[in-house]
Structures are given as structure tokens and as C-alpha cells.
Amino acid sequence: MKEGDKDIDRMDCEYIRSLIDEGANTDTLNDIEQHIGEHIKKCPVCREHLKKTRNLLAIIKEAKIKSPRADFISDLSTSILKRIHSIKETNFGELIEKSPRKVKEEKEVKKDIEVIEPKGIEEKTEKPVIKVKELHPSKVKKMGWLKWAVPLAACIITISIIITLNKSWKAEKEEGLIAMEEKETGVVDMTAPPKKEEPELIEEKYEKGGEIEATAMREKEVVEGRTITSPAVTRRFKVISDEVSSESESGVLAGHEFEAKREVSVSETTKPAREMIAVETGIEVEMKNPDPLIPINLGMLDPQVASDILTEVAENIGEEEKDIGISYFTRSKEDGDYVLVIGGGITESELSDIEYAIIKEMTKEAGGYRYIKAIEEEEAEDLFGGI
Amino acid sequence: MCQKYREGQVNGETSESDEELLERFISGNEEAFAKIVERHQTRVYNISYGIVRNRTIAEDITEETFIKLFLKAHTFKGLSKFTTWLHSIAANTAKNYLKTLKRRSLEVNIEDIVEIKDNIVGPEKNTEATILNERINQALRKLPDRQREVFIMRHINGFTVKETAEMLDISSGAVKANLSFALSKLRDLLDDLI
User: Do residues B55 and B137 share a domain?
Assistant: First the structure.
């Protein structure tokens, strides 16, 4: 703000308040106050903002994270080491990735073989004498175990292969004979034992075009390697494939390259385990929209990522970020137009010029938007966990 | 507190730095590992608790974090500070745990997030503290996950914006934006108290 201005610039107020919020902690607030002192003296709203922030932080300073049990803290290192040792004592210990402890063991084993260079009289000997010490006890134990385990495992594998081959050969032969007989005579043998049918749980209940109620978790990964998961939303889904359990989308939005992945699982509380199994075995589903909208682009994103994009766009057009709660960008299924859904019950008429400018910029790459759909705060909470 | 660990100062005494302890542990000294655990257990627990908001689960995650440290210590390349690395493991373990629960549509029993330090004497003051405690926890519960995580990391666990960003694997800008939203909401929710 220029000196001498009698009116307080609104943008300055927003900047001052964001400065207070971003840098807020009890130490830096005093520095900030000095820096923005002139403005604070003139502006009662910012003064109140600073006062409230300071009071809030003073209360929060008294708060601490709920403590763990006293015995947990006192026994932690002992219990961790005990747990690690117990894992290593089992045969599964071998499966543990190369840990520092394992490196140490290897070093010890190496020491068991020593190359002794010839000295003195022995210098006459051309080749060095290789003296093999006793093997490390764990190595001896391991070898003893291997002595009988390896041949036993080999026997078991061979026997099981023979049994499997034999069974499948017999089954093929029987099926072939029956088929040949039926083909030749044109009569189906009704006395023959029924063919064993593979359980068709998925196809039976979740054939393509069928419906399922499931919880969709939208997961997003941006180029910087961040992975953010948005809150789960339970909806009715249409089964479109029985091969994969997720679908992904990628593209560029407001300069952000993104790849979004939607994973699907059934809510345990609302659906029986049978359906859960079906989904876990991998069914690709498509959201069946209660209103004819399908979520795309921002709809697939975490509100925070949408907020990042918003910030970026706002910076590009040289304005401060506005908390307008844009969080849901959809496309009408009927006409393919883009629709922007705004949380918190904000209607189109309540948007300011700057908010319009941001929205326009934000949706430019997607070809603009046609209309804005306002949703109630409660619905926004359900969808996005708050805006 | 964080600075104290970084410089290898504990209770005013100069001790080995984290990196030195880690080096000793990698060369096979389990006592060094125990020292690392003792030095960082509270902070790792606090990070975990701030995310999962359940004491038993936070304790499990703390244990899990140190087991991961035991198994992966040799992979630490020193590109970041040891504390940043360890705290990231804790935060990721906690977040992955929640992700797994969400995938299975299971819910965690959410407990109070914070406790007000009970330096207030007398029964009346105690009631005040209880009310304050309840109000703050209610308000924190109302924040969206990301805003709450960032706020707790920054203002309750005392990490810097940069440290919070590294731990949660988000940009500093995102941390600041979330802090701003969180503060704004908390100011509204606790308006009568401030």
C-alpha cells in the first residue's frame, strides 16, 4: 500500500492476512507485526485477524499429542530388537532383505577362510597355504538342514507334477471320448457324471452391464511424485469388465501433468463378503451417475491438488488465490459439455469477477465450462471431506 | 527439540550425532540402534499419532517404523538429514496404514488428538482445561485430513514448513495453503475462546 493512501487496499489486506497465516507461529508473529505494523495500525480487520491468530496459537501451544503408554516408551528398543531376533531365528528370517545384521554375519563367515601367506622356511613353497577354519556355527546348522530338506523338496515337487499331469491327462481323455461318442451317435449320455463346473462367482453375479454398490477411492499421482488419495465415495457402479480393478486417466491440466487412478473396493458394512471377494478379484467398474455427470479431470483429483492448480492459475493471472472451493469438474454425459461443481452451496451469482477469471483460466484447456452446478456444503463434505 | 536432535545434543550433553550412531549400527552395533530408538521414539510416535489418531495404532506404527529402519538402514545415502528420512518413513507408514484400512472399508477408532498440558491447579481450573481440551479436539476433528495433518505437524509437533512438506511429500506451497485454510477454520470454530 502506498503511503498516504487513506483507504485500505483490499488486496493488501488479503496479502497481510495470508502473511500472518502462512508464517504464523508465536515467534514469527512479532516479526510479522513489525513488518506490517503500518497497515495493522490502520486496518481494524487485519488487527483483529492478527489478535485472533495469536490467541489461537497461544491455546494450541498448550496442547500436546496424546502420550503413549509409559511402558511402551520404556520397552520400545528392547521389544523391537526382540521382535527382529525372533523373526531371524525362524526359517523366514532368510526372507528378510539384506539387513545390517545380515551383512555382519556375512563378514564373519568370510573370516572363516584365511589365506596364509608363506613366511620364513615356508617361503620356498610357491603356492600359498589355504587354511580352512571351522565353519561358522549357523552355516553348519544350515547345511545340516539342507542335507535332507533339498532331496525331500525335490521328491515332493516331482510327485506332485506327476499326479497333476496324470489327472489332467485322464480328464482330457474322458472328455474326448464322451465328445466323440456324442458326436458319432448324436445321443448325450445322461447317466454320465456331470462335468465339474468352475465356480463362476463373478460372471454369475457381476456380468457385464450388472450393477454393484462400491466405494471408489480416487488416487492421484502428479509429476513431482506426490500421491494424494481423496476421500472414499460410495456409489452404484456398472460392471464393464471382469479383468481389472482400476482405471486410470492422464493428461495435462493448467500446466500440471497428471495421472489419476481410481481404485474400487466394496464397503464391508453395506455389502456381503461375497461381493467384496468379487471386487478384490478384479472387476473394472464405471460410475453410474445419479445425475448425468461423469467425473473427469478435476473430479478425479484430490481437492488439495485442485487447490494447487487454482493457486498456479491465480499466480499466472497475477492475483491472489481465492478460496472459492472449486473441487469438482465434471462433464455432462448427455452433451459432453464441461460443468464446474462448487462446494459449500456457492451459487454462480455469488462468484466475484476474479473468481470467474480463475474459473475461465482453469477450464480453458478443457474447452471452457458451460454452467456451474452448486452443491450443498453437506454433500461437498461427503464428497471431498470438506473444502 | 528437532534442532537438539540434529546437533546430537541430548539433555545438554554432547553425544554422537544420528549419522554417527547409524554408521555404528550398520557396522553391527545394536546398542547404537537402541540409542537411535530412544532418541527418536517420542517424535516418531507423535508424527504417527497426528496421522492415525489412535494410540494403539500409533504405537504399532512407531514399532514398525523402527523395524523398517533396522532393515533399511544401509540404504540411507545421506542425501537428506537422518531425521527427515526417519520421519518420512513414519509418516508414510502411517498414511499407508490408513490407506489399507480405507481400501478394506474399515474404520479406526478416532481418539482425542491432543491433551492440554495440565499445569492448571484446582478443581475449577481442571474443568476449564477439560472443556478447552474437548473444544480443541472437536475443532481439529472437523478439519479435512490434509489440513489437520499439516496443522498438527507445524503447530503441535513444531516442524518447520519445509520439514512438514518433506515428511508429507507435498510442496511448501501446499503446506502453507493448508495451514492458512486450517487456521481460518479453527479461528471460526474457536471464535468464542479467542
Answer: no
Confidence check: pLDDT of A307 > 90: no
Q: Is the Cβ pair B67, A52 closer than 8 Å? A: no
Question: Among residues 1-20 of chain B, which lie with CB inside 8 Å of chain A?
Answer: none
Are B99 and B18 in the same domain? yes
Q: What is the dihedral of CA A143, A144, A149, A154, to 10 degrees?
A: 60
Of the candidates B133, B93, B94, B97, the residue with the CA atom closest to the CA atom of residue B112: B133
**Does residue B7 fall inside a structural domain?**
no
Respond yes or no on whether ipTM tops 0.95.
no
Same domain, B124 and B171: yes
CB atoms A321 and B71 under 8 Å: no
For chains A and B, count residue pairs whose Cβ atoms are closer than 8 Å: 185
B154 in a domain, yes or no? yes
Residue in chain B closest to A51 (alpha carbons) equals B194
Residues B153 and B170 grouped into a single domain:
yes
Per-residue pLDDT tens for A336-348? 444 455 544 444 5
> Using the beta-carbon criterion (under 8 Å), do A308 and B177 form an inter-chain contact?
yes
- Residues B132-145 have pLDDT tens digits of 888 888 898 888 88
Tell me the C-alpha distance between A47 and B104, whole Å: 48
Q: How far apart are CA A188 and CA B51, in angstroms?
A: 65
**Do B124 and B100 belong together in one domain?**
no
pLDDT of res. A240: 41
B28 touches chain A (CB under 8 A): yes
